[in-house]
Amino acid sequence: MNNYTEFSWDWLSPHWFSYGTLTDFEWGFHYFLYLIPFIPLLWVLRWLMKYSYRQQLEVALPGKGIRESKEALLRYIPFLFLMLSLACWLIAMARPQKTSQQVESKTEGIDIILVMDISQTMKIEDFTPNRLEAAKEVAKGFIKGRSYDRIGLVIFSGEAVSYAPLTVDYSLLEELVGDIHFEMIEKGGTAIGEALGVALNRMKESESKSKVVVLLSDGDNNAGSIDPTTAAELCHDEGVKIYSIGVGKEGKVPYGRDIFGMPRYVEQRLDETTLRTVAQIGQGQYFRATNNRALQAVFSKIDEYEKSEVKTFEYKEVQDFYRIYMVFGAIFLFLWLLTKSTFMTNVLED
């Protein structure tokens, strides 16, 4: 578009008065436009004053000598120029303008590692259908609810495995979580410290300002070569925050079926001390989930705590067009001055 801060011959184009052009404008002082319909009232007032106060001379003429002349309509042209001039100035005072807006967003995502326990005790059925399947469903919902964040996966039982690197391919992550099963790691036990160590190794490549580990387990640390407290301290030194989730009920819980197809119950104990300690060292928080709904609430709470930072910068450029209508107003005013004292206003009125 041309720059309309200086005069251009484009100013004199009639398209400035087209319906499409006028409706395309944004108006700084739109209330001036409401005055335009009242401009024709000036012509009515002028006519009333002219015929009310002028001196009239009665002249008797034969009927055949009176005829209408089209030339008499010329007397309206000067006043038409004046009304057009006023309309243009009202449009200019309404300040027609166009706004171009540009929004620039800068997003700082979070790097999150989900560390999931797949030991045999995750088969316990105090969750529906069991602890692992419930955790998988909630984890998929957690992944689906994130934006801009890179998420990785670590699974562990007697040893820990990096299952998925940090990525923003959420559909792939959901698919990988859905494929998790108990036979993925042969070695039995619960290696919480080693799982945190594997997650930390993944985080060392991260340049994100916010790094988070979400640890989900239901048992004591009874395997692996790294103590959970030591692993948590290493995470703290690297600026990695730890949220730990203790899954399951204590006491007698259903675990499989007996030969008669009836639920079999086993005694279960959860080492909350270890999970609470690693969360405290990692400057995060410990949660306890005893059923599906509680586990969903825990992940929702973590999702609420850890939000990506999105900074939005908005640039707005306003281009004014009132000068164009001021020029038209001046042109019509000049034409009014040019014609108001000519033969047009002196044509014999009928």
In words, what does this structure look like?
The chain has 350 residues and is α/β, with parallel strands linked by helices. The protein has 2 domains: 9-50 and 68-101 and 317-346, no CATH class; 109-306, Rossmann fold, CATH 3.40.50.410. It is 35% helix and 23% strand. It contains 10 helices and 11 strands. The protein has helices at 19-24, 40-53, 77-93, 131-144, 170-178, 192-203, 228-237, 272-281, 292-305, 322-339, and strands at 26-27, 96-108, 111-117, 150-156, 160-167, 211-217, 240-247, 251-257, 263-268, 285-289, 309-320. Strands 5-4-3-6-7-10 form a 6-stranded mixed sheet, sandwiched between helices. The protein has a 3-stranded antiparallel sheet with strand order 1-2-11. Strands 8-9 form a two-stranded antiparallel sheet. Helix 3 (77-93) packs antiparallel against helix 10. The chain crosses the membrane at residues 29-48, 73-92, 321-338.
